[in-house]
Predict the structure.
Amino acid sequence: MQIRNAKDFWSGILFASFGAFFLVFARDYDMGKAARMGPAFFPTVLGGLLMLLGAIVAARGLTARSNDGRIDRFQFKPLALVLGAVVAFGLLLQPAGLLFALAALVIISSFGSDEFRLRDVLLLTIFLAGLVLVVFIYGLAMTVPVLPGFLRD
Amino acid sequence: MDLVDNLALGFSTALTLANLAYAFAGVVIGTLIGVLPGIGPVATLAMLLPTTYALEPTSALIMLAGIYYGAQYGGSTTAILVNLPGESSSVVTCIDGYQMARRGRAGSALAVAALGSFFAGTVGTLVLAALAGPMVELAFKFGPAEYFSLMVLGLIGAVVLASGSLVKAIAMIVLGLLLGLVGTDVNSGVARFSFDIPELTDGIGFVGVAMGVFGFAEIIANLEQKGARQVFTDRVGRLLPNRKEFAYAIPAVLRGTGLGCLLGVLPGGGALLSSFAAYTLEKKITRNPDPPFGQGNVRGVAAPESANNAGAQTSFIPMLTLGIPPNAVMALMVGAMTIHNIQPGPQVMTSNPSLFWGLIASMWIGNLMLVVLNLPLIGIWVQLLKVPYRLLYPAILVFCCIGVYSINNNSFDVTMTALFGALGYLFYKLGCEPAPLILGFILGPMMEENLRRAMLLSRGDATVFFTRPLSLILLLMAVALVVIVALPQIGRKREEAFQDSE
């Protein structure tokens, strides 16, 4: 067996796995009857349907006539840096406060670009910190710690 | 005279200082993101949803709507001057618009696009106002079985008319439906698929899914692509089209508007589909075009730009009257309503008339603002195209993260969004369109609810969906759509239509 359309094949596998996941965990709940459906009914039907659709898509990936469904290389650098920056923001927000979380977000995510320039990034951080303070903290009165824990009273 | 009364109520709501200000904010943001390539209205609406939490619901919806149709105006600017679609609905505008710019007619192309959009927006708003009443009346005849069938039709329509593989799109819908079911089941109180994570018992946040799958994935994808672009920013030239261009553009605007109004109402319709269809139509009916299409024919700008704006307006019809979103942007509008505790559906018009008509009236006012923003002030937007992306995207991320956090004041939501960003990137690599996922996600709980209610009322008899005439008609329409697209010849035509633009 040869994978002819990799995009289709792997999307099929992805769909089928999601379908199986919901199908299996829906078994923990009550199916109910047709007139009084339990919480498991709809997810079970949909999970089964998704597995079926996934199988069709994957099968088409194996039997496609052309070989044009190649998957472009994953570029892990921007992926990891952008999403890592977001996670860092989430983790830092409560303990370290908005300003530090924002700086971490801007600086880490900026490394994701090929044209990283330290001076510009620092200026951008300061600009955004000012903007966020004015708009969200003073303007919209958002309740979020601004400063790190040890500096709060 | 009902319509006049209703519009009067609408204008009195929309013309308050605060609502004018929010409409203005919406269209400015819309133009801004329309001009900037690589950030679309879906991602922007997702990012701004949480910030509207503090606003009046009417103001919030007026602003969010402004972003959507504002983006249609801004998108054409980038398409004409840079040959990059600022918005996906401006893809076809690139073809002839950029060629006009190369011939020194950039100003005229921009003017045709803006004026055509304004005309189409006006007509679209009127159609919306006129059709809203009858649609709501029809909607009140709907029981749970009809609603369920309507959602099936809506979801099928959304994938049939969109580009790409049909089976994959349906699979994305089903996955969206399933993700929408995570959380406490309203009927039994069971927390489904929450795995003892307390945050998940309320369900996965809609904003996080939309922002991750569209916003973050889009940013990462943009960072991968590099390429120089030639910008015609210094030579916009005279704005007024010449007589020949006027003569060509006016009928094209009329046709584009008509087609856009029609396609906007359809499930799966909206700005994107309308612009494609309008361009194809112009190409079909114009004999001996001079200059040929693809070399700067003004019709190729006038028709799709009018159509996308008309479609953007009329796609509000199913969302406002039935509570069924025909596309991803409208799904976000439904999300915005639920954030403000407004149950979308036919009762919105009767229970919140000032919101309903105020929103409609604000669209016309917003369109008027957009003409001013986009013609005399075009120079400002052109400058924006010079801001490098490496400075833009960290700023976008900051607003996203603060936005997600502020919904529940919870960092868990931020992490969740990152997770969906990774999933969105995977979808992008695998060539899976994310828009159907969002539609499914919004409709999942509604569909289950109506299915259960319909089955309860029929005492477990599933034939109820086929014996009630309205429900049967809706289901037959859905089947017809699938059959039509599955037919080989039409399937090929559909692919051609979408490839024309590339």
Q: What stands out?
A: Chain A touches chain B through 70 residues (CB under 8 Å).
